C-alpha cells in the first residue's frame, strides 16, 4: 500500500504571531517615518503620486513584485509575494488619498502604513507559508471609488479575502456603512442682463435653488437611515448676468442598496427634473463616481480580528448595524469577495473628516495604532494562509451574507 505523501508542517500559530511582531519591531521606525511622510504630503483622490510611489518602493525593497498603475489607475499598485506552494491569496489594502482642505483628516496615512506594515512583517515568513500575499494600493476612496474601478478592471480577481483597518475613535470589528451614490447635476439656462433684460434669460441658478428646496422636502418622506446632502459647484459667473449654467454635487445614502437605487434614486431624479421644468432650464445628470455599496458582514473574519486585537491589548466593543453612517468603496469589495473593514482607535473623541482627526493621525497614539494594526492584519493574513478551516468558514459566511458564490 502506498503511504500518502505527508504535507509540510505549518508553523504553530502562537510562534508565528511572535515572529510577526518581532519582524514588525525591526520595521517600526521606517514604517512610522513613512506614515509621517504621507501625512505631511497630503494628496487628494487620483493625485496620490508620491504616496503610491513611496509605498510601492518600500514593498519592492522587501521582495514584492510590484505592478504600478494597476487597473489603468496611475496611482494604484498591486504588489505580490508568493509563498512556498499552492494556497489561498490574501490581499492587504492600502488607502492613501487625503481630503481637500483637511489633509489626512480621515487617517489614510494610518490605513496605508497598517497595510504596508503587515506586509513588511510577513515578507520574511512567506517562504514558510503557502499561498500568495498581495498588497493592493487603492486610490481615491474619498469620492472617487478607486476600489470599484479596480474591481471592474480585474485587479481583485483570484483574491480569497481582502483586509484593511480604518482608524477611528473606537476599536470595532466592522464599520457598518451606507450604500451611496453621487451625482453631478447641472442646469443649463440662457444668459441675459440681470437688470436690463432679465425676462430674456433662463436662470440656471434658480433651478439649483429649487432643487435644494425639493431635496429638503424629500427628506421628510424617506426612511430614517437615508442621508442626502449637496453643495453648489457652479453658481454663475457674475451677479449682473442671469446664470447660463449652474451645478451641484448631490449625495444620497441608505443602509439598503436596493431601496437606495430602486426607490430613492428615481424620486431624487424627479426633484431635479421638476426644478428644470419650473425654470425652463435643461437638466444634465451624471455619476460623479461609482456607487458605493454597504459593507457585508463576515463573522469569522471579524472574530479573527477581535482575537488579534486583544492580543495587542485592545478592548473591542460590539458594533450596531443600525448605526451605519459613512460610506466606503470597501463595501463594493465585500460584496464581491470576503472583506474585513475593522476599526482601531487613534483618539477617544475626534471623528474622521475633522481637523482634530488629522492631528490624531500623526500623534503618538496614531503611531501606536499603525503598529497595532499592522500586527493585527498580519496575524489575520497568516491565519487565512495556514488555516484551511478558517478560510472555509470565511467563504461560507460570505455566501450567506451576499448570496454569491465564493471566489
Characterization of the model:
The chain has 407 residues and is of the alpha/beta class. It has 11 helices and 10 strands. The longest helix has 28 residues, at 13-40. It is elongated and about 80 Å long. Mean pLDDT is 95; it is low at 1-8.
Task: Write out key terms for the chains shown.
407 residues, alpha/beta, Aminopeptidase, 10 strands
Give the termini separation. Answer: 37 Å
CATH topology of the largest domain: Aminopeptidase
Q: What's the number of domains?
A: 2
CATH architecture heading of the largest domain: 3-Layer(aba) Sandwich
CATH top level assignment of the largest domain: Alpha Beta
In terms of DSSP E residues, the strand content is 15-25%
Question: What's the mean pLDDT score?
Answer: 95
Shape: elongated
CATH superfamily of the largest domain: Zn peptidases
Biggest sheet statistics? 6 strands, mixed
Structural class: alpha/beta
Helix content range of the residues, please? 40-55%
Strand and helix order: HHEEEHEHEEHEEHEHHEHHH
Radius of gyration: 24 Å
Number of strands: 10
How are the strands of the largest sheet arranged? 1-2-4-3-5-10
Task: Give a brief description.
This protein is an alpha/beta fold and 407 residues long.
Per-chain topology:
Elements: H1 13-40, H2 49-61, E1 65-68, E2 77-82, E3 89-94, H3 108-122, E4 132-137, H4 146-152, E5 161-168, E6 179-188, H5 204-218, E7 227-234, E8 245-254, H6 257-279, E9 282-287, H7 299-311, H8 330-334, E10 339-345, H9 355-360, H10 364-386, H11 388-402
Amino acid at each position: 500500500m502506498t503511504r500518502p505523501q505527508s504535507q509540510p508542517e505549518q508553523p504553530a500559530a502562537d510562534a508565528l504571531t511572535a515572529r510577526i511582531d518581532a519582524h514588525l519591531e525591526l520595521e517600526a521606525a521606517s514604517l512610522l517615518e513613512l506614515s509621517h511622510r504621507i501625512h505631511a504630503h497630503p494628496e487628494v483622490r487620483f493625485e496620490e503620486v508620491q504616496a503610491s510611489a513611496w509605498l510601492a518602493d518600500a514593498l519592492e525593497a522587501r521582495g514584492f513584485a510590484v505592478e504600478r498603475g494597476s487597473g489603468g489607475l496611475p496611482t494604484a499598485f498591486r504588489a505580490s509575494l508568493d509563498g512556498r506552494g499552492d494556497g489561498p491569496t490574501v490581499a492587504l489594502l492600502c488607502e492613501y488619498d487625503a481630503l481637500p482642505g483637511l489633509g489626512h483628516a480621515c487617517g489614510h496615512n494610518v490605513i496605508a502604513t497598517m497595510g504596508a506594515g503587515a506586509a513588511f512583517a510577513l515578507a520574511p515568513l512567506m517562504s514558510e507559508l503557502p499561498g500568495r500575499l498581495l498588497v493592493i494600493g487603492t486610490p481615491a476612496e474619498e469620492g472617487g471609488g478607486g476600489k470599484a474601478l479596480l474591481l471592474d478592471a480585474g485587479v481583485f480577481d483570484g483574491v480569497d479575502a481582502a483586509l484593511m483597518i480604518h482608524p477611528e475613535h473606537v476599536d470595532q470589528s466592522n464599520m457598518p456603512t451606507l450604500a451611496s451614490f453621487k451625482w453631478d447635476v447641472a442646469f443649463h439656462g440662457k444668459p441675459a442682463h440681470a437688470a436690463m433684460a432679465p425676462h430674456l434669460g433662463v436662470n440656471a441658478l434658480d433651478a439649483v435653488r429649487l432643487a435644494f428646496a425639493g431635496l429638503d422636502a424629500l427628506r421628510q418622506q424617506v426612511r430614517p437611515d437615508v442621508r442626502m446632502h449637496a453643495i453648489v459647484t457652479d453658481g454663475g459667473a457674475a451677479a449682473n448676468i442671469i446664470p447660463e449654467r449652474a451645478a451641484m454635487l448631490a449625495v444620497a445614502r441608505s443602509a439598503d442598496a436596493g431601496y437606495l437605487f430602486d426607490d430613492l434614486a428615481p424620486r431624487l431624479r424627479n426633484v431635479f427634473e421638476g426644478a428644470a421644468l419650473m425654470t425652463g432650464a435643461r437638466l444634465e445628470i451624471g455619476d460623479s463616481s461609482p456607487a458605493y455599496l454597504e459593507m457585508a458582514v463576515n463573522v469569522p473574519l471579524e472574530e479573527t480580528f477581535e482575537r488579534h486585537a486583544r492580543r495587542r491589548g485592545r478592548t473591542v466593543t460590539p458594533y450596531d448595524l443600525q448605526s451605519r453612517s459613512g460610506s466606503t468603496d470597501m463595501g463594493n469589495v465585500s460584496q464581491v469577495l470576503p472583506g474585513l473593514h475593522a476599526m482601531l482607535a487613534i483618539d477617544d473623541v475626534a471623528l474622521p473628516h475633522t481637523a482634530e482627526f488629522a492631528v490624531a493621525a500623526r500623534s503618538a497614539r496614531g503611531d501606536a495604532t499603525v503598529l497595532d494594526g499592522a500586527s493585527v492584519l498580519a496575524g489575520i493574513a497568516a491565519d487565512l494562509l495556514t488555516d484551511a478551516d478558517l478560510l472555509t468558514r470565511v467563504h461560507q459566511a460570505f455566501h450567506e451574507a451576499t448570496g454569491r458564490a465564493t471566489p
